[in-house]
Amino acid sequence: MKPAPGTIHHVAAAGAGQTLAAFLRGAEQASWSQVQRLIHTRRVQIHGNVCTDAGRRLRDGDVVKILPTSAPAPPRADQLRIVHLDAAVVVVDKPTGITTVRHAEERSWPARRRQVQPTLDELLPAAIAAHGGRRRGGGRLVPVRAVHRIDRETSGLVVFARTVPAERILAEQFRAHTTRRRYLALCVGRVGAGTIVSTLVRDRGDGRRGSSDEGEGKRAVTHVHPVEHFGDDATLVECVLETGRTHQIRIHLAESGHPLCGERVYSAPRGSGGVDRSGARRVMLHAARLGFVHPESGADLDFESPLPADIRAVIARLRGSAGPRPPAPRPDAGLTRPRPPRPPSASPRPAKRRPRPRRP
Fold first, then answer.
1. In the beta sheet, which residues pair with residue 292?
2. Cβ(160)–Cβ(90) under 8 Å?
3. How far apart are CA 96 and CA 98, in angstroms?
4. Which residue in 85, 116, 189, 201 has the most C-beta neighbors within 10 A?
5. Which helix (H) or strand (E) holds 218?
6. What secondary structure does DSSP assign to 112-132, as a single string?
7. Annotated catalytic sites, by residue?
8. In this predicted model, what pLDDT tens digit does every residue of 121-166 receive, in sequence order?
9. Residues 6 or more apart from 210 whose CB is under 8 A from it?
10. What is the pLDDT of residue 184?
């Protein structure tokens, strides 16, 4: 039987200790050659990480997913776009498909496995060195220090500290919610302006993060402003974070009945009726703006990132299916700030008449 794309398998105690290839062969009723081809062409993930090791031993609780197409190769250090670099901080435009830092359970991985799915903080030192950044004695790369993170599928701006004092000062700004962060998100349905306030917990009762009415958890506030409507199918919104909880935007919009296009974890409440017709292949979320106080100079820094090509492509498809629309601000430049009206063009001057030749 040919393995079904998009299938997700949860490894139970009975499957623990099996190799990835043996597990998939039994779970999918597939041949060895089919399973090997899946693994070696980057179409198998374990806990969201691409795995190309057919002999990897699985553990109880592992989540194995078969992708419909091969996962793209991880970005190289020379492909990272550094937006700002100085002795204390570095701001980078993170591409989608890469985690900001390695999860705790992955830190003991051997170098070979890390290279299959590198993290942003692992690639960034080499990118900094290529931009003329300093190295340690012996030419060793200087590691960066994470002070916040964005999801694997989320693209956009991330800041790292390059010194211990800078890490402490930046981390305090994020804890105090004095940083300025704005995201662009493509959501299912027609979304209006408003503010979403809830208390988020790690487990809402089904093993996933979500809002709770029990008074426990952490307060989360998201301000939502529509930027462009695509009929009733979808809306491009700007989300301003007053707090910065894990998956805050994804949870808040899903619970309000408007999950992000491409969302596969958080769903809308029953009866919401929204259907994702975008065809998005990842969560349509982009960290478009980031502002903070420089930890050494005290200067107010603000950075912007344009929408990446894959989100622009989905928007173009939605515009085509929604038909004529009223003019709206460009989502990758002005966000919700109104663009100044263009001055009326001056009326053209009448052309000068050529003088008639005199009669002899």
1. 301
2. yes
3. 6
4. 189
5. strand 218-230
6. HHHHHS--HHHHHHHHHHHTT
7. 151
8. 999 999 998 876 565 545 578 899 999 999 988 999 999 999 999 9
9. 200, 201, 204, 251, 255, 266
10. 98
